[in-house]
Amino acid sequence: RTLKIGLIPGDGIGKEVIPAGRRILEALPASLGLKFDFIDLKAGWETFQEQGVALPEETVSVLKSDCDGALFGAVSSPTTAVKGYSSPIVALRKRLDLYANVRPVKTVVSAPKPIDMVIVRENTEDLYVKEETTRDTPQGKVAEAIKRISQRASSRIATIAGEIALRRQNIRAAGAPSIHKGPLVTITHKSNVLSQTDGLFRVTAREALTAPRFADAGVKIEEQIVDSMVYKLFRQPEAYDVIVAPNLYGDILSDGAAALVGSLGLVPSANVGEGFAIGEPCHGSAPDIQGKGIANPIATLRSAALMLEFLNEEQAAAKIYAAVDANLEEGKLLSPDLGGTATTEEVVQDILRRL
Amino acid sequence: RTLKIGLIPGDGIGKEVIPAGRRILEALPASLGLKFDFIDLKAGWETFQEQGVALPEETVSVLKSDCDGALFGAVSSPTTAVKGYSSPIVALRKRLDLYANVRPVKTVVSAPKPIDMVIVRENTEDLYVKEETTRDTPQGKVAEAIKRISQRASSRIATIAGEIALRRQNIRAAGAPSIHKGPLVTITHKSNVLSQTDGLFRVTAREALTAPRFADAGVKIEEQIVDSMVYKLFRQPEAYDVIVAPNLYGDILSDGAAALVGSLGLVPSANVGEGFAIGEPCHGSAPDIQGKGIANPIATLRSAALMLEFLNEEQAAAKIYAAVDANLEEGKLLSPDLGGTATTEEVVQDILRRL
Ligand SMILES: CC(C)[C@H](C(=O)O)[C@@H](O)C(=O)O
Ligand SMILES: CC(C)[C@H](C(=O)O)[C@@H](O)C(=O)O
User: Fold this and answer.
1) Quick one: A1-104+261-355 is in which CATH superfamily?
2) Sequence-ordered list of residues with C-beta below 8 angstroms from that of A307, at least 6 positions apart, any chain
3) Architecture per CATH, B1-115+263-355
């Protein structure tokens, strides 16, 4: 099977880590029978400055018609609002209907306080519909934004969260070391204040997750109000397996969870739609370390693996995860965000060697 | 001076901690020249079940016309949406125009990783305007909520945040031990996605905080996108002094910050308006420990002190803070949330003794 993969480095360290993602895919053992074609694509702040658009139509159409998946690096935002500029990744998620943002947050197994959770973030609506207006009043400007929650999007995000919980359970059943006893999905919302919008998310997610295929497989459901979820995330992170949340809460929770494992540089994500996935490291463009060659490539390598999982190449994904974990378990070649002194290149080589 | 204080225990452990708040006010040394009149008031889920309203008009009117301040315990929310019920504290904040929610999060000075920050949360708008609608579509229900951000509310919340930063700086200048070098206000928003609403908050807050009285006193301004703020909160909490945020982010950040000091049972808040303040522990009604007599009274005692601060009784407030800190520094009589075995009553007595 040949997979066509779009490569969208974007800005900042995106340009330093996306090539690492390409290299690990190319280095996968031939025995897996996987080949890759790569297509370089543009998006981001630099692209905006060159072309006047942050997400060129060509990028969208090539992804739609020619690609099986993609790797997206990061984009810089201008420091003040710039007319016509808006985040290309937010737009891509909507244009390609990549309705789920999946963010596994996991320590190595031997960590003193092991954590192993996945945050499943709705990726198309909530405040990210970006419908905003501003009016002038005698007391000054008043701006409003729409938070939109639909039954349809809530149901499908909860369903994929349930599926991920089942898949994780199957991997555990196959003997993988684990801190969890059974599959658990925690629904996060703020329905004590937003009874209609978050109330709809809550009720719909509950309904989807009580479907027989989840209930029969023992998937447990729990709820947490978002503020209390953040509190619990830090007090007892080991208690969580799969967390499902509307877009904005998911954005916040996944950065919070990343803090628990020591560095955003470790945390991958995948933007998942029907038969398509974009891997995306969670760390952003990191202008402070850009060009120094010290960005942690692990979030991108894991994002490449996560993309492969959602393209049904779980064996190939497992190889990458294992090579990354071996590097981390040994702990000798680590990038500066993890307290080490290794360069991006050294970390990549160490991981390729373990593949 | 006689202060009239409304007491609104609400539900759950609210009934166990608010009496402690009353007792510490009554126990303040006579030399301070402060007297208190207390007025018992109702609100909450039990009140709703008795009277059909969660916030009786009488409670609002007595607070408005007879009181200088109040202590609010906690309210339980029904587990599923109940027609006509909505959170009385959210309503009170709006009805009394208590525009700032101030939440100091602080370890004892001798903590291995000392933290000393205040989260200043806008308290009247954002998604808390609770303007929601739901419609049926061929794809199912779609619900929308309004997020409203005004220049007026953003300006006054940033201004009070600046004032709090100055006040903290003055206390440090007077010789209090501190982990901070100078006053810093961190503006939190998500203007990379919400360019109009959060963009307005950001620009307005910046403007308010660059006023000469802040700039001349050396108040520094920093910005953090809310997801990255949560990340930083956990990675380098010692870096933050005053954090100012729109309502919902402030709600989430203050619970997150509470996790850093070990227990929500330690964290006070004050809902502050012009010449009026309601002290409110951050912990909620905690049905799991209700009636056991083991609720931590410290959040309420500190909330009483915080209320006094905003009623310009800083000396009295300082006495309460010192008594609480002495109890915590000694660490002998601690409630179970802090790993101790003391009852609410034992903790209260220990603190009263130190007053
Ligand atoms: C850059 C920003 C628009 C984006 C988001 O909010 O989704 C980022 O925080 C993320 O989590 O991918
Ligand atoms: C109970 C709830 C409505 C409230 C809020 O969201 O403001 C609480 O979380 C708080 O922080 O006081």
Assistant:
1) Isopropylmalate Dehydrogenase (3.40.718.10)
2) A5, A69, A70, A71, A270, A277, A278, A279
3) 3-Layer(aba) Sandwich (3.40)
- CA-CA distances (angstroms) from residue B96 to A299, B18, B124, B154? 48, 20, 10, 18
Is there a contact between B239 and B247 (Cβ–Cβ < 8 Å)? no
A229-259 burial, b if ≥16 CB within 10 A, otherwise e? bbbbbbeebeebbbbbbbbbbbbbbbbbbbb
Alpha-carbon distance of A290 to A5, in angstroms, equals: 24
- Measuring from atom 5 of ligand 1, which residue has the nearest CA? A251
The pLDDT tens digits for B47-86 are 999 999 999 999 999 999 999 999 999 998 777 778 888 8
- Which residues touch B324 (CB under 8 Å, ≥6 apart)? B298, B301, B302, B305, B351
Ligand nearest to the CA of A189: 2
Mutate to test the pocket of ligand 2, among B71, B72, B251, B267 (most ligand atoms within 8 A of CB): B251
B268-287 confidence digits (pLDDT tens):
999 999 999 999 999 999 99
**pTM higher than 0.90, yes or no?**
yes
Q: Where in chain A is the domain with CATH 3.40.718.10?
A: 1-104+261-355, 116-260
